Amino acid sequence: MADTEAARMVKLGYKLMSEEHGPKALVRNLQRAEEAGFDFAAISDHFSPWIEEQGHAPLAWSVLGALAQATSRIGLMTAVTCPIQRYHPAIIAQGAATIGLLSDDRFTLGLGAGERLNEHVTGAGWPGTAERHERLSEAIEIIQGLLGAEITNYRGQHFQLDHAKLFDRPERKVPVILAAGGPEAARMAARKSEGLIATEPRRDLIEAYRGAGGTGPCYAEVSVCWAASEAEAQRTAHHYFRWSVTGWPVQMELPSVEAFAAATKHVTPEMVAENVACGPDPSRFLANLGKFREAGFDHLILTQVGPQQAEFIDFFQRELAPKLRG
């Protein structure tokens, strides 16, 4: 495929970091993002921030209702919701159908296996990897079945459904996408959902998804930090985003903001900047985004770290969007 064709096909998304912003700020940020021309926006769905400095964790579903009413064009999605413990999958299906109606079919449901930090709060413990994957597989079957009006009862090893029906459900089924950190999860996304989402520029995930018959969009979250200088951006990224350096095997297991503080005690700003494009130079951002495009991702979610959201959105509109869209 020619580069110009790839440029025309890419969709650009804005990340609503509910760990860093309160509910009213998230609504204001989305309105700015819509005005700036973002195609869609994705909101994180967490009970807790990763580290104390982030300072926020509003309920994503309440915010989504406000977002749907405060905008008219921009797409909405969760990135991602865990349906295996804190929520029963039937409740997620009901929430997704409601947001689909409120947004006039602008909503996509992103699902993932979650992490201890947000799911242990119910006091039910945190299952091992194999059980989490079993739970996720059952949860997807329930959610897809309810959204498509195909099931009312379900008896699984971990979840049950008893005479359930969504009375308010959009005619166009809400699409479901699945987070994948490895090829096995990517193949599950192909079998059980309408798309894939990842956080690393890994071609093997795309190949596994396409190889298993997946034909839907492939989303990627790309972390960036715009600031007036590279040094300022690195300090900001370190302050709010140093938790990301721990890697997914650690992130899924640590139980609290205190644990993440201890795990990142020796992380430096330079270490964070290895994975987060920092500063005012658009070429850094474009190079980082280019890695994901080359891997095969066609929906890029830009995650601006820190409080300078309005400045980043202006930068996106002025410097990034024209080049990314060719």
Automatic annotation (TrEMBL):
E.C. code: 1.-.-.-
Gene3D superfamilies listed in its UniProt record: Luciferase-like domain (3.20.20.30)
Record GO terms (molecular function): oxidoreductase activity
Top-tier EC class: oxidoreductase
Alphabetical UniProt keywords: Oxidoreductase
Region forming the signal peptide: none
All residue ranges annotated as the Luciferase-like domain in the record: 19-299
Pfam families: Bac_luciferase (PF00296)
The protein, known as: TIGR03557 family F420-dependent LLM class oxidoreductase
